[in-house]
Amino acid sequence: MSNKNILITGATSGIGFAAAQLLAKQGHQIIACGRRQERLNKLIQNIDNQIYTLNFDVRDRSQVYDAIQKIPAAFRPIDVLVNNAGNAHGLAPVHEGSEEDWDAMLDINVKGALYVAKAIIKQDMIPQNHGHIIHVGSIAGKQAYANGNVYCASKFALDAIIQSMRLELLPHGIKVSGIHPGLVETEFSMVRFKGDKLRASKVYENIEPLQAEDIAQTIAFMINSPEHVNIADVVVFPKCQADAITVKRN
Ligand SMILES: NC(=O)c1ccc[n+]([C@@H]2O[C@H](COP(=O)([O-])OP(=O)(O)OC[C@H]3O[C@@H](n4cnc5c(N)ncnc54)[C@H](OP(=O)(O)O)[C@@H]3O)[C@@H](O)[C@H]2O)c1
């Protein structure tokens, strides 16, 4: 297994945090990104020589381009981008939905992912004719569900972008993959329900959901696969889940 320079967005919690920890343990160099600096500091406590942190909001394209341009030479070229930052905001029918929530989801999950990918493809990957981009989508990007409308739309859009990018980047030797989780117990539901702990905990009541580490393991497997292998599209459910909405509770 060769060591790589891996940039992970959304590395302050959940899937991104777990992926940063695991991949650093495996010997890779990590550029961990997010807005909460104290969480990024927690990541570097034990493995600071292998982790470089970047604090930016993916919605702000000048912040994104500026931050990525300033990554030190020791962490470049970036071999792998784990484009993971994102969240659901709210769960309501369109006629009761919040415009602010719609803006947040489309700006973060779609446009934010585009800004980060564009910067890294141009700066690091095309010049090397090499690279691997793993987008974290969702089962919500494969199957729409009631009240999911704009979150589902953002992840369907991401899935379309993944498919286009795979074609666009083929001539440049850059692999493009999507991983689409089902229910993972992270801060995701706390963000979706705006800090309502009770409502968030109900999502995972009487089931054994995936943990962030489960998705991190799959991402690591995709990254550590031989160069000629592209694990292009992966859906990961907990055992208790059959599709976006069908879950067997105890
Ligand atoms: N948990 C699930 O059930 C599930 C299922 C399917 C797909 N997913 C997807 O998995 C990805 C990770 O989610 P998670 O479950 O690990 O949730 P999480 O624990 O809430 O993590 C979300 C991450 O995204 C970052 N982020 C959010 N908005 C950002 C912004 N504007 N700028 C920069 N970073 C931002 C957060 O960092 P800061 O707040 O520090 O910026 C945080 O690190 C998301 O794309 C989500 O849609 C999750």
Question: Could you explain how this protein is built, in words?
Answer:
This protein is an alpha/beta fold. It has a single domain (5-236), classed as NAD(P)-binding Rossmann-like Domain (Rossmann fold, 3-Layer(aba) Sandwich), CATH 3.40.50. Helices cover 43% and strands 16% of the residues. The strands form 2 sheets. It has a 7-stranded parallel β-sheet, with helices on both faces. A two-stranded parallel ribbon has the order 7-8. The longest helix is centred in the middle third of the chain and has 30 residues, at 99-128. NADP nicotinamide-adenine-dinucleotide phosphate binds next to helix 1 and helix 6. The site of NADP nicotinamide-adenine-dinucleotide phosphate (NAP) has 30 residues, from helix 1 and helix 6.
Indicate the topology.
Elements: E1 5-8, H1 14-25, E2 29-34, H2 37-47, E3 51-55, H3 61-69, E4 80-83, H4 99-128, E5 131-136, H5 149-169, E6 174-181, E7 184-185, H6 188-192, H7 197-203, E8 210-211, H8 212-224, E9 233-236
Parallel strand pairs: 1-2, 1-4, 2-3, 4-5, 5-6, 6-9, 7-8
Helix pairs in contact: 1-8, 3-4, 4-5
The site of NADP nicotinamide-adenine-dinucleotide phosphate has 30 residues, from helix 1 and helix 6.
Q: Mean pLDDT score, rounded? A: 97
CATH architecture: 3-Layer(aba) Sandwich
Secondary structure tally: strands: 9
Number of domains: 1
- Low-confidence regions: none
How is the biggest beta sheet arranged? 7 strands, parallel
Strand order of the largest sheet: 3-2-1-4-5-6-9
Number of helices: 8
Q: What is the element string, with H for helices and E for strands?
A: EHEHEHEHEHEEHHEHE
Q: Could you name the CATH class?
A: Alpha Beta
**Might you state the CATH topology name?**
Rossmann fold
Radius of gyration: 17 Å
Percent helix among the residues? Answer: 40-55%
Note the gap between the termini. Answer: 41 Å
Shape: globular
Give the CATH superfamily. NAD(P)-binding Rossmann-like Domain
